[in-house]
Amino acid sequence: MTTTTIERRSPVIAPSGHPTVRPPAAAHLSDEDVARLGAELDAIRDEVIASRGASDAAYIRRMIRLQRTLEIGGRAALVVASFPPAWIAGTAMLSIAKILENMEIGHNVLHGQWDWMRDPDIHSSTWEWDFVAPASGWRHAHNDLHHTWTNVVGRDRDVGYTVLRMDDSIPWRPRHLLNPVMNAILAPIFEWAIALFDLELDAVKEGKKTRKALNSDLRELGVKFSRQVAKDYLATPGVAALTGSFVPALLATLSANAIRNIWAHAVIFCGHFPDGTDTFTEEMIEGETRGDWYIRQMIGSANISGSKLMHTMTGNLSHQIEHHLFPDLPSNRYAEVAVKVREISERYGLPYTTGPLLRQVGSTWKKVARLALP
Amino acid sequence: MVSPDDEGATAPARENCLVGTLWSKAARVFTTPHHPEDFWALVNPLASARQLRGVVTAVVRETPQAATISFRPGKGWDAHLAGQYARIGVEIDGVRHWRSYSLSAAEGRDPAITVTDIGRVSHGLVSGTRVGDVLFLAPPQGDFLLPTHPRPLLMLTAGSGLTPVMSMIRTLVPARADADVVLVHSARTPADALFREELLETADQFSGLVVHHWFTTERGRRLDLTSTADLDLLAPDWRDRVAYTCGPVEMLDAAEALWASEGGDVRMERFAPTLLPGTGGHGGTISFEKSDREVDADGATTLLDAGEEAGVLMPSGCRMGICHTCLTPLLGGQVRDLRTGELHGDEGELIQTCVNAPAGPVRLDL
Q1: Residue A44 gets which letter from DSSP?
Q2: Which of B49, B192, B255, B315 lies at a 20 to 30 A Cα distance from A235?
Q3: How far apart are CA A271 and CA A97, in angstroms?
Q4: Nearest residue on chain A to B96, alpha-carbon basis
Q5: Radius of gyration of chain B from Cα atoms?
Q6: Considering only CB atoms, which chain A residues are within 8 Å of B39?
Q7: Across the beta sheet with B242-247, what order do the strands follow?
C-alpha cells in the first residue's frame, strides 16, 4: 500500500492566540475581541449561505442575458459603424457588455460565487471570460495568491503588480520615478498587463515556478490571445467591411476594450490603494487566527460608495471589503452584508474606508505620484 | 437494437451534423470565449453546448402523490427503449439536483417520466413543474428491457416500481397479438395505484394482458414473496413466465431469494442502494484537484455528497452504485465502499463517488 502525502490548499489559520504583531489599526483589540469579531462575521456568512436560493439564481441569469443581449446588439450596430449614431450606440453597448462580462459576471463566477447552483453553464471550473488573460491562470494569481495574502508586502503580488511602487516599505529605485507614467500606460492596456502578470515571470526567475509550467501557460495564453484578437479586430470589423465600415468598426472594438480596461483598472485600484487602507508585514500574519484574517481583509480594502447602477458596473467590487471577507458569496448579496459589516467595524473601532469613485481614484493617483519619490 | 432502417437514417443525419459543426465553428469566431449556443439560448431555451435539455410539454396528475411529466428533448437525446430510465436534472431553490427516473411512455412516443413524491427532488418535480419549464437531461440508459423474443411474462411491481413496467406494457400489449403478460401490482389503496384505469381498460381490450391489483389496506398485509402461496393463487403458471420485478428493496430481496430457491428467470430494477451501516470509518479530507477545493468528510458521507456540498461539479446518476455515471479517477488516498465496507484505492482507479467515502485523505481528479 502506498501512502500519499496531501498538501492542504488553504493557509494554516491558528485556532486561537494572536499574530506575532497585530496591525496598528487593530492593536487595541484583545484576543477575545478578535475571536468574537470572527464569530460574528462567520454568522453573517452562514446566514447568506443558508438563504441563497432561486432569486439569486434568477439574478445572475438575468445579468448574463442582459450582457449577451448588449453584446449582440453592440456588434450588430457596428456592422454599419460608418454611420456615426450606429458607431456610438455600438461602442457604448459593447463597452457595457464587456464591463459586465468581466466584472459582475466573469470575476464573480470565477470566484465560485455561483458554484452552489451546480449549473455547468455558470461555474468557476467551466467559465472562460472575454479578457486576454486566461481564466485558469488568473484564478491562481488572483484567488489563491492575492485573496490569501491580501496586502502582505512581499507576498501579495497585487501590491503594485510588480511594476509600480505602491507601499513605503518597498525600497525606492530610480525607475519608480516613472510610477505615474507606468500607471497611465497600464490603464488602457490593463487586460494585456494582467495576462503578462499572471504568467508570474518573476517566480520563474526565482525558480519558484518551473519552465514547463510557464510554457504550458504561454501556450494557453497564445490560443486565448489569437481568439480574442480574431474576434474583436478581424471578425467583427470584417463583417462591417461589407458596408464599408471596417476601419470605424475596428476603432469601435479597440475603444470598447480600452474603455473596459480603463474602468476595470480604476475600480480595481480603488480596492486596496486609497488612503486609509493598510498593508501588512510577515509578522502580522504569523499566527493569524480566523478573526485576524478577517481584520486584515477589512482594513486592507476600501469600498466605493454610489448608486445601485454603480455597484453593478463595478461588479460589486465597490463592496471590496465585503468581497474580501467573503470572496465566494454571491455578489448581489454584498450590499446587505455591507450594512452589517460596517456596524461591526464601528463597534470594534476598526477603520472602514469608503468614498465616492472620483475621490477614491484621486486618492490612488496621489499615492502613485507620492511613492514615485523616495 | 439497431434495425436496417436505422442504419440508413444515420447518413443524412451525419451530413447535417457536419454542416452544423462548420456553422458552429464559424459562429464561434464571433462568440469566443463563449459558445454560439450560449447566445442562441437567449431565444431557444433548449440551446446549450454543455447540457442536454428538454422542455415540459404536459404535466398530468396520476394519483394524489404522483404526476407524469412529458417533455420534448433537445438535440442529443436518444429514443428510449421500454423499461429504461433517464437522469433528470431539476432546479430546487436555485440548486441543480440530479435523479434517475424510469420513463413511463411507450417506446416510440415522446418521453415522459412518472414521479412519485417521496423526497425533496421528487416533491419539487411533482408539485413545482409547469408546462414550458426546462428540465436537464441525460440520454436514456438501463438494461431492464423486454426480452428480444416473445415469451410469457410476469410483471411483479409495487408502488412507483410500476413505472418502467408500464412503458413495457404500453409498448408490447397493443402492438403484439401474441403478447402474454400477467401484471401483479401492489399499492396501498386503489386511489394510490398508478395507471389503474388505463391498465384495467387495456386488460379489457387486449387478451394479452391480465391485471391483478393487490391493495395492502384491503388485504391487511403485503404481498408475501417468502413463500410461493400468493403467486400460486394469483398466477398459477408463474413458473413458466419470465419475471420482471421492480419495487421496494424488501420486495426485491424476497423475490431474489424466492427465484433463487425455486429456479426460473427473474430480472429486477433496483431503485435504492443497500449501504451497510457503520462501515464508514473515520473519513478524511477530500481534495478536488481541478476545482481547487478541499473539504473534510466523515466516513459515512459519500464523495459525491461531500463534493456537491462544496459546490464541485460532480458527475452523478443513479446515486446507488449502478449506472457508473459518477466514475472519477482517484489521484491518491484510499476510499471505502459503503456497500461492502471494502477498502480500496489504486492510483488512477475509477471510483464510484456515490457509494464511496473517504478513508483518510483522498485526492480526486475533478
Answers
A1: H
A2: B49
A3: 22
A4: A118
A5: 23
A6: 68, 71-72
A7: B209-215, B181-187, B153-158, B242-247, B266-270
The better pLDDT of the pair A18, A332 is held by A332
| Closest alpha carbon to A266 in A371, A362, A130 | A362
Q: Which positions ≥6 away from A213 have C-beta within 8 Å?
A: none
- Determine the pLDDT at residue B13: 43
Are B312 and A115 in contact (CB < 8 Å)?
Answer: yes
> CATH number, domain at B263?
3.40.50.80
Domain hosting A327: range is 24-53+132-370
CATH code of B327's domain: 3.10.20.30
Residues of chain B neighbouring A228 (CB-CB closer than 8 A): 32-33
According to DSSP, residue A150 is labeled: T
CA contacts within 13 A on the Cβ side of A93: 20
**Does A19 map to a domain?**
no
Taking contacts as CB-CB distances below 8 angstroms, the residues of chain A near B313 are 115, 118, 120, 123, 125-126
Q: Is there a contact between B208 and B180 (Cβ–Cβ < 8 Å)?
A: yes
Q: What is the pLDDT of residues B24-43, one digit of tens each?
A: 889 999 999 999 999 999 99
Owning domain of residue B83: 51-143
- The answer to whether the Cβ–Cβ distance between B285 and A8 falls below 8 Å is yes
- As given in the structure block, the three cell numbers for residue B50 are 454543455
Quick one: closest CA in A to B310, which residue?
A: A116
The minimal CB distance from A53 to the residues B94, B293, B362 is found for B94
* Residue A317, amino acid: L
Residue B3 pLDDT > 50: no
Buried b (16+ CB within 10 A) or exposed e, A305-327: eeeeeebbbbbbbbbbbbbbbbb
Residue A9 CA to residue A24 CA, distance in Å, equals 29
The answer as to whether A46 is a domain residue is yes
Nearest Cα neighbor of B187 from B163, B161, B158 is B158
CB contact under 8 A, A118 and B361: no
Residues B187 and B288 in one domain: no
Question: Is B275 among the domain residues?
Answer: no
